[in-house]
Structure formats: structure tokens, C-alpha cells
Design brief:
Radius of gyration: 28 Å
Helix content: over 70%
Structural class: mainly alpha
Oligomer: single chain
Number of strands: 0
Strand content: under 5%
Shape: globular
Order of helices and strands: HHHHHHHHHHHHHHHHHHHHHHHHHHHHH
Length: 538
């Protein structure tokens, strides 16, 4: 017994050390180091559920399928498997063509509830794998009916195409495209590849708008009678499941709180459909947004640059490179994408944002202006005008910026963000102060809980001499955004002017925690000496 106890003790100590190293790497954002240490910890002590949970999470983030499966099995044995774990095991069953196990995991999804709405589509793919045809039937009274319908047409089309039935697929293709807003370019390309592979060239071309850069390679291939794309192969049930999860991942990733779930869904989808470029593109985008730039770059580079989906992969790569801090490489890539004939507005906006982040605000303004070329003069989206106006303002070209921002405000009189920007920019310059104050009051009425807009309004009231009204507005703004250096500095200036000197210094010290450059020096000076004209916030 003693040797066994000694070995277990050594293993547990080793596991503890590896786990601690993993947690430390985790907190420092070193995902790859964290993963390796969690892998070691799990191998040394597989009975620790905290280790298994973190191993499961990082395995899905990184794409380590073996570790994901092992940690999921341990969690399931203890009855603590995360709800998406059933999807992971289902992907394995479908990949093995174990239809009985696939049905059992689908039944478990239904019993657990979270992903129950996927069941009709999953059962239709399982039926296809068994050589049967079964539509994704959902009763209109089913509480999941609307969710299922969001995806059902796409999969009805894919299953028909897998059987070689172009005629049946056609209406479902059109319905699926009409339902999508996100991933629409990828979906058009994929359906076109599927149709072309079955001899429906004209139907394929009809899905690909002429003159648009995103579809140029596919149209050229089809017109040259090449029609080559791996995406044209009939889908297996596992691949269909992978596409379903990828689409779901895009839909659930609406903010920071749900993005990690989106990554996990997309990663499980990539395990089921490893050749699916749609999954790689979505994974790269979500990983970039969540700060996992190394993994995002890996995924984006798995999309062949010379294929039909190459430009989508390159766009995702540009975003990933930028998130990783390689601004020059990201800008070069984005510039090449924007220079292509028929480049979409999205490409120019990406370039503009990258240039703005690099401090080239004049270049950014040009890119945002180029994005407007696809629209009639009176139909330019207000967001593009705001992008251009803000870039011009930050480039020091205020007269031009003001004209563009006024166009944006005229195009979108009910958009608080536009009114706030135009109003605050004028307050900063002490121009048209009364008109700017009116704009900010209007913006605040539209978004009364927005801390940034509260700050703009309070600062405008302070600048116009209404300190009594300004202080409570700035206090509410600081309560809503306690880590905002600008808001806390504004509050400090207003409090000092109102005679509340101790509280003013407290606000300035709070601002100094997050301030940089000139703002940091200014805050240090007035915390020490009090508010003087030369130390006033701009």
C-alpha cells in the first residue's frame, strides 16, 4: 500500500503545482501555457473536478479534441458535465457513424433542455446517415418552433443536395438565404459550390452577385467551367451538425457574456466538420473578439487563401493580427482587400478602423469615405458618416469633421451617439455652446442611462456656468463608469468649483489611476495644487 500511497501523493502534488501554474498563466492571458499545465494536472490527478472543468474549457478554446473528450468524460462520470458537453459527445457519435449513440445523445439534449430545439434537425441528419429521409418536423405550437425554423431551411437544402436533389433544394436555399443576415456571404458561396458540383451552374451563379469582390473568385471559376471547391462535396451528418453549431455560435455571440459559449459551440462544430471553412472563419472571428489572438490566427490561416472562401479567411486574419498587436501586417492585408475591384464597404471600414487604431486618422477618414461609394448620396448610412467625422476630428481637421458630423446628425436625428459626438466636440472647442448643449440634452433624453452621454451633458452644463446642475449629472456619470478617467476628471473640476475640495481631489485621484500622458500630468498637478486655469480639463 505504501508505494501506491506515495505515488498518489507525488501525483497529487504534481497536479497541484501544474494547476497553480495553469491558473497563473490563465490570469496573465497566456492561454497556451495555461492549457499545457491543465493537461499535465489532469493527467496527474484525474479525480479533481476543478482541474477537469478548466481542462475542458481550455481544450475547447484551443482545439485540443482529445483533452476535451477526456475531461468531458470525467465530468460526466461525476454528473457535472456542462450542457454543451452533450454536443461534444454527439459530434463524436456522428463522426463514427454510430447512429444509435447519436440518437441517445440527441434524446439527452431534449431532456436537459438547453439545446433541445436542435433535435428535429439532428434527427433528420441521423436519418440521412441511416439511408432514410426525415424532414425537420416541428409543430407550430412547439415553443421552439421559431428557433428551429431559423436553421431548418438551410439543413433541408443541404440534405436535399446531399441526396443530389437540386430541384427540391432550390426553394429551401432561397428561404435559408432570406432568413440570414450574419454569415450571408459564406452561405451564398457554400450553396453555390454545392449547386455547381451537381451541374446547376446557372443557379449557382445566380447566388453570387456580379461585381462584388467577395464572389469574384467563385464566379471566375464557374464561368471558366472549373467549379472547383471542396465545399461542393455532399455533406455527411457530422458535417451538417458542424455547420449547424457554427451558425448557432454566430447567433449566440452577441456580447462578451455569450462569446465564450459561441467559441465552444464553434469549436465542437469544427471537431464534427474539420474541413469546414465556415467553422474556421467563425472561430477566428470569435477568438479574436475574446482576446485569443494566437488561436484566431491559427484558425484563419487554415482557410486556403486561393479558394472561394479565401477573402473571408483573409479578413478574419487581418482582425486576428490586429488583436495580436501586429498592426502593420493587419493594415497591409486589409489594404490589399480594400484595393480589390468591387471591394465591399465592410473591407473599407475594416481598413479605416485599423488605421484609426494605429493613429493614422486622415488615412482612416479616407477609408471610411471610400466605404460610402456604394451608396447614393442621400442614402449613406449614418454610421459611416460618424466614422468619417470622428476620424477627421481626431486628425485635427475640425471644419471638415463638423460638416460630416452635421450630415450624420441630419441623417439620424434620433441616434444619441451622433448627437453626443457632435455636441461634445463643439463643447471641447467652446464653439456654439448653447446649440451643443441642446444636442446633448436631446442625446441624454434618448439614452438617459448612458454614462458617456451623462458626462457630456454635465460637462456642457459646467462649461456654460451651471455648476449646480452639472455636479449631480457628473456624479451619476462617474457612478456608471467608475474607471473612466475623463468622467472622473470632469467631476473633480466641477466639485472643486462648487467648493467641495476634498471630494474633488478624491475624484482626480480616481481619474489618475487610469489616465495617461498629458492627462496624467495634469491630474497630478491639480491634485497637488488645486484647480488652476492651466490645469482645467479640455
Amino acid at each position: 500500500m505504501l508505494p501506491g500511497i506515495a505515488r498518489a501523493s507525488v501525483d497529487r502534488t504534481s497536479a497541484l503545482h501544474a494547476y497553480a501554474r495553469g491558473r497563473l498563466a490563465d490570469s496573465n492571458g497566456a492561454a497556451a501555457i495555461a492549457l499545457e499545465n491543465y493537461r499535465q494536472a489532469l493527467a496527474a490527478d484525474p479525480d479533481q473536478m476543478d482541474i477537469a472543468r478548466r481542462s475542458y474549457f481550455h481544450a475547447l478554446i484551443s482545439g485540443d479534441m482529445a483533452l476535451a473528450m477526456r475531461s468531458a468524460a470525467l465530468l460526466d462520470q461525476q454528473g457535472v458535465l456542462p450542457r454543451d458537453g452533450a454536443l461534444l459527445f454527439l459530434s463524436g457519435a456522428l463522426s463514427r457513424k454510430d447512429w444509435q449513440a447519436a440518437r441517445q445523445w440527441t434524446d439527452r439534449l431534449v431532456s436537459e433542455g438547453n439545446f433541445a430545439f436542435l433535435a428535429p434537425i439532428l434527427r433528420s441528419w441521423i436519418a440521412l446517415g441511416e439511408g432514410r429521409v426525415a424532414a425537420s418536423e416541428v409543430e407550430g405550437t412547439d415553443r421552439f418552433a421559431s428557433l428551429v425554423q431559423r436553421y431548418a431551411d438551410e439543413h433541408a437544402a443541404l440534405q436535399a443536395l446531399a441526396r443530389g436533389d437540386v430541384k427540391e433544394a432550390g426553394p429551401a436555399v432561397n428561404r435559408a438565404l432570406a432568413l440570414r443576415t450574419a454569415d450571408l456571404t459564406e452561405l451564398r458561396l457554400f450553396f453555390a459550390a454545392q449547386l455547381a458540383a451537381r451541374g446547376a451552374k446557372e443557379q449557382a451563379l445566380a447566388l453570387l452577385p456580379a461585381g462584388e469582390a467577395n464572389y469574384a473568385r467563385a464566379r471566375d471559376d464557374l464561368n471558366a467551367r472549373k467549379g472547383r471547391s471542396d465545399a461542393g462535396k455532399p455533406l455527411t451528418p457530422a458535417q451538417g451538425f458542424g455547420r449547424l453549431l457554427t451558425r448557432l455560435a454566430t447567433d449566440v455571440s452577441t456580447d462578451d457574456a455569450t462569446r465564450i459559449l459561441g467559441i465552444r459551440l464553434a469549436r465542437i462544430g469544427s471537431f464534427a466538420n474539420p474541413s469546414g471553412v465556415d467553422g474556421r472563419i467563425v472561430l477566428a472571428q470569435l477568438l479574436s473578439e475574446a482576446g485569443y489572438s494566437r488561436y484566431a490566427i491559427e484558425e484563419a490561416r487554415k482557410v486556403p487563401a486561393d479558394g472561394w472562401f479565401g477573402v473571408l479567411g483573409q479578413a478574419a486574419l487581418a482582425d486576428a493580427l490586429a488583436q495580436a498587436g501586429d498592426k502593420e501586417a493587419a493594415i497591409r492585408l486589409a489594404r490589399s482587400l480594400a484595393a480589390a475591384p468591387g471591394a465591399s464597404a465592410e473591407r473599407h471600414v475594416r481598413l479605416g478602423r485599423l488605421l484609426a487604431n494605429a493613429g493614422d486618422f486622415s488615412g482612416a477618414a479616407e477609408a471610411f469615405r471610400a466605404a460610402q461609394a456604394a451608396y447614393a448620396p442621400g442614402a449613406v448610412p449614418w454610421a459611416l458618416l460618424l466614422f468619417e467625422g470622428s476620424a477627421l476630428e481626431q486628425a485635427g481637421r475640425w471644419d471638415e469633421a463638423r460638416a460630416v458630423l452635421e450630415r450624420a446628425a441630419k441623417a439620424a436625428p434620433g441616434e444619441a451617439v451622433v448627437l453626443n459626438y457632435l455636441g461634445y466636440a463643439q463643447i471641447e472647442r467652446r464653439q456654439n455652446v448653447e446649440e451643443a448643449l441642446a444636442l446633448l440634452k436631446q442625446a441624454s433624453a434618448l439614452k438617459p442611462e448612458d454614462a458617456s452621454i451623462m458626462d457630456s451633458l454635465g460637462w456642457a452644463q459646467f462649461v456654460t456656468g451651471n455648476v449646480t446642475e452639472a455636479v449631480p449629472v457628473l456624479e451619476r456619470a462617474a457612478a456608471g463608469a467608475p474607471s473612466d478617467a475623463t468622467i472622473n476628471e470632469h467631476l473633480g473640476d466641477a466639485l472643486w468649483t462648487a467648493g467641495r475640495r476634498f471630494e474633488a481631489r478624491y475624484a482626480w485621484k480616481a481619474a489618475a489611476v487610469f489616465a495617461e500622458g498629458e492627462a496624467a500630468a495634469r491630474l497630478k498637478a491639480k491634485t497637488r495644487e488645486g484647480l488652476k486655469p492651466e490645469y482645467a480639463a479640455p
